[in-house]
Amino acid sequence: MTDIRMNKIDKIQRGMHGLFFVFGFSAFLPQGLSAAVLLLVLIGWLTFSKQRQLHMQQLPSKSIMLLLAAFALWPFLVAAYYGWFTDTTTRLFHMARVALMLQMGLMTTSSERLIAFKGLVWGGIFTSLVMLVHQVHPLPEWTVWHHLLEVKGSQSSRAMIMLALTAGVCAAMCLKNRPYSRPPSLQWLTMAVFLAFVVGFFSISKNAQIILLTLPVVLLIHHHRSVRGGLMAIAFFVFLTVVAWKLFPSLSGRFTQAMVELQNVMNSGNCESSVGVRFAMYKMAWSQLQLHPWVGTGIGSFVDYWAPMAEKSCPSTAGIRQPHNDFLLFAMESGWLGLITTLAVIGWFVKTFWQQTNIDGSVGLMLCSTFIITGMVNSPMRDAGIGFVMIFLLASCYKKTTPK
What we know:
The chain is an all-alpha fold. It is built from 17 helices and no strands.
C-alpha cells in the first residue's frame, strides 16, 4: 500500500512539474494558456494534501505577506470610498490576480522554479527558430505562432520582452558555471548571444531593446557587488549600446523616431504617435495625482478622464484603457498611498534578491528590472499578456533561507 501511495504521489508531482514547464514555455505562446496552466497548478495545490503541505511550508516571511495584503486591499478600500467607474471591476480583478500570482510564486519549490525556467528557455529557442525559419521559408498562419510571424502588436512585444529576459537568464547561467566547467559556460553564453541577436534584429519594441541592454548591467553589478564591478557594468552598457546602435538598424531607427515624436508633442501638442500619446497620458495622470494626492481619482477611473480629453486632442487614442505606465496609473487612481504600497512590494523583492548572492538572486534582480522598465512604458500588471509569466517567475526566485 505504501508503494502504491508513493507511486501516486510521484505521478502527481511529475504532472505538476509538467505544468510548470508548459507555464514557462507559454510566455511565448498565445495569450490565455498561461492563465489556464496556472489555474490548474492552483487547483492541484488545493486538491492534493501532499501538495498543500509542501507549499504551505514555503510560506515567506510576514513582512512580504503584510505588504501584499496592503497592495491588494487598498484598491478595494478606494473603490468602496469612490464607487464604481467604467473600468473598476477589471482593475480590481487584475490587482487581486497580481497579488495571487506573487503569493503563488513565493510558495513554489526550487525544483518547480527550475522547471519553469527550463520551459522559458526552451520557449525562447522555439520562438527564435520560428522567426528565423519564417525568414527563409514563410510558415503557415497557425494560431500557435501567428503573433511571432508579424513583428508588431502587444503579443509580439510580449514575446520580445520575454526573449530579452531569457537571454539574460542564459547569461546568468554562464556566470554560474564559469568557475567550474568551461563547456557548459560556453553553451549558455552562445545561447544568450543568439537570443540577444534575435531580439536585436527582429524586435521593434523599444521596451524589449532597453531590457536587452540593461540586463547585462544588472547581472554584472549583482555578480561583482563592488564599485569596480559597477564601473565595469556601466562601461559594458556603453559598449553594448554603441555596438547595438551600429549593428541593429531597428534600434537606432526606433529611438530616433521616438525623439522626433517627443519633440513634436512638446512643441505642437500633437499626441497622435506612440510617444506622443504616452506623453499626454502621463501628463494627465500626473495632473490628476496632484489634484487628488491621497486616495486618487478612484479605481478604474482612468478611462473616464482620458476619453473626453483624447477626443479633443488625439481622437484615435480615445479607446486606450491604461496610460502604459502602471506606476502613474496606480498613483492617479489610488493616490500616493496606492503607489507607496506598490513600490514597497517591489522594493522588498529588490532588497531580497540583492541579498541572495546566488543565481536565484541574479535572475530575480533581472526580473525586477524587467518589471520596472516594462511598468514605466507599458502595463504588466494591467495587461495579463505582458506580465503574467514575468510576475510569477519574479516571485519564484525568492528563497526562504537567504544566504548571508
